[in-house]
Write a structure and sequence with these properties.
Oligomer: homodimer
CATH architecture of the largest domain in chain A: 3-Layer(aba) Sandwich
Number of helices of chain A: 11
CATH class of the largest domain in chain A: Alpha Beta
Mean pLDDT of chain A: 94
Distance between the termini of chain A: 74 Å
Radius of gyration of chain A: 26 Å
Strand content of chain A: 5-15%
Largest sheet of chain A: 6 strands, parallel
Shape of chain A: elongated
Number of strands of chain A: 12
Helix content of chain A: 40-55%
CATH superfamily of the largest domain in chain A: Response regulator
CATH topology of the largest domain in chain A: Rossmann fold
DNA sequence: TATGTATCTGCAATCGTTTGCAGACGAAAG
DNA sequence: CTTTCGTCTGCAAACGATTGCAGATACATA
């Protein structure tokens, strides 16, 4: 009487006087079972309080109906939105999602891969840490052949299935917009270049500068984790420069907010003396005063795409030799923090 | 050659010329196995590319090492923080967390419980939807005897294991603070009372009013999902009143922000003419101008508590007849949105 | 030599499903 | 009456680990 014995299909079989195989088939609506018996079996199951054991099924059929996901942290609103989209979409396929957080640690990330593989996930979805450099842990052999899909933060210089926002375009659009507002000394506060998204945005930034024939100035560009402290630090050095910048393109909204704070504390007027743009368009951008120009990434779109792709890969495990890459659109949202004339 | 055959302990046994049982024990550091053989086995495992099959182990031992969690949505920053704390803590116990979102739908919530039970979770952690009224789905029998711990949003009038913030105190402190600022017509924008937290906060609100001998005025109190649209609506009716309120105690920060927006659009000066408080202290409260008074709930503390409690319950499955309830502290964070005199 | 003890290892059943194959049955066709 | 077919059902072997129990080995002791 320690643990109440689980009710199994065996019990049902006994109850209705049939074999376990028929019961199994009846419960899963196998076409070879008559409607009549199906009903009988299902009623008995209900009556006995039967609970399906997905573990046993997964073991036997080696289909766990589970996808693993590793993400730096779920508290970033963009990530939360993507994950939710993925999860909802996967549910429509009858698949569950196992969510793990790497907390930006490549070591933990590695451990989590092992963990997920041990739980026999049928697919793996990953947005890497800022510092992931060794992608071999995601190799087909390393993950036992299960399909891997990356999104947002993806391996650099390595063929893989991936869905990314159009980071280059985002970086380009922000920069171009600032240039069009008349800015010429545009600072760029970026994350580490070991992370794909920052690399791409930097390229977009450079491209726009180039187009406007403004030389790339290293003293205006910073690379570090984009939290408040680091960003304030960068502002500090930035404004110690002989020549102050007239715009800052920060690579996320947290950093943009920090720039605003710095400006406020140092009597720099935004957008008049300094224009500021963020990235990711999180909800804080429109609460801030001034409202912050940012780039919408359509996380829902990305999430749906990721879910579809991984399901595709699972269902056609055959000769998958080529890699699929999808780029989702981005949209520059212009707000007061970068606009010369105030809109009415 | 369809799917590359998995390497099992059987293969290892063959490799090192031992029985599977010894291999199994060696891998799990069983004390009856000599260090020497353990090493040999582990090396062989490494060499063959062995991957532990947690499914098989879970089935056999009926210990899945997995806890299920059902939460309305992970995109609420408070929830994300609690979940992260829970997950990290559980990892230290060697347990995994399976996260599902009920999306505020009691039906989906019910489905998810079934799903989690099917995956043989050893425990269940729940923060209910706003509208969950039928708690029988969480009954010991309904969940096959696995322990259930509620947090934040918990069943009303039903004994259960739970960890909640001190909502009553939070509601009381906010209201008292507003009263002390000289407010007398304090509106209260609350969530539906089917949800424990709002019920408690309302009680705190009433208690403070009572203490200041201000009668409870129904026309100042609203119950609805706390999104922007609903809140604006409530403000509309609120300010159509013959006598306008001089303060609004909104039950979350999204609602408080909406109130600020309404005030701004209608030329109502905050905090001069109207004081506004939120709840949950999400990051937007200090970005908003004016900054918004709110209540910190210490999600990390709550998460750790939840994880510890569920592990306790799992480890002492024996005669658990009594229910444990823990209340975590809250702290009123006073900001400009409710302060009469501006701090320097 | 027999016995005891400590340490290590193996046998085989078991967890709850799924599934290939074969069998049973009745009806229709020859 | 046999044959054939279609429809439904059952047998029994998996899936990959864990674990109670018994057995083996080595060594010391009686």
């Amino acid at each position: 009487m320690k643990k109440q014995q689980q009710v199994t299909i065996k019990d049902i079989a006994l109850e209705v006087g049939m074999s376990v195989s028929s019961v199994s088939r009846a419960l899963s609506d196998h076409p070879h079972i008559s409607e009549e018996t199906k009903l009988k079996v299902k009623n008995a199951a209900e009556k006995l309080g039967y609970r399906y054991n997905a573990l046993a099924a997964a073991l036997r059929s080696s289909r766990s109906k589970t996808i693993g996901l590793i993400v730096p942290r779920i508290s970033m609103s963009f990530q939360a939105a993507v994950i939710t989209a993925i999860q909802n979409k996967l549910h429509t396929y009858g698949y569950n999602l196992m969510i793990f957080q790497s907390n930006e640690s490549p070591e933990l990330e590695k451990t989590l891969i092992k963990l997920l593989m041990a739980t026999q996930v049928e697919g793996l979805i990953v947005s890497t840490t800022l510092y992931t450099k060794d992608y071999s842990v995601f190799d087909k052999t390393a993950v036992g052949g299960v399909p891997v899909v990356f999104y947002d933060r993806v391996p650099i210089d390595k063929a893989c299935h991936k869905i990314v926002g159009d980071e280059f375009s985002g970086g380009y659009q922000v920069t171009r917009h600032l240039l069009e507002q008349g800015c010429t000394r545009i600072a760029h506060i970026s994350g580490p270049l070991s992370c794909s998204i920052y690399l791409q945005r930097l390229n977009g930034y450079k491209d726009a500068l180039n187009e406007f024939q403004i030389p790339y100035d290293e003293s205006l560009v910073f690379f570090h984790e984009l939290n408040k402290e680091n960003t304030l630090q960068s502002c500090e050095t930035l404004f110690k420069n002989k020549q102050a910048p007239d715009a800052v393109f920060a690579c996320n909204d947290t950093a943009a907010l920090a720039v605003l704070e710095f400006a406020r504390e140092n009597g720099i007027s935004v957008p008049k003396d300094l224009k500021v743009s963020g990235y990711a368009n999180d909800s804080r951008t429109e609460i801030s005063r001034p409202e912050i120009t940012s780039v919408e990434q359509f996380p829902h779109l990305m999430g749906e795409g990721v879910a579809k792709l991984i399901m595709d890969l699972i269902h056609n495990q055959d000769n998958q030799r080529s890699f699929l890459s999808l780029t989702t659109p981005v949209e520059l949202i212009k707000r007061t923090s970068t606009l010369s004339e105030q809109p009415s």
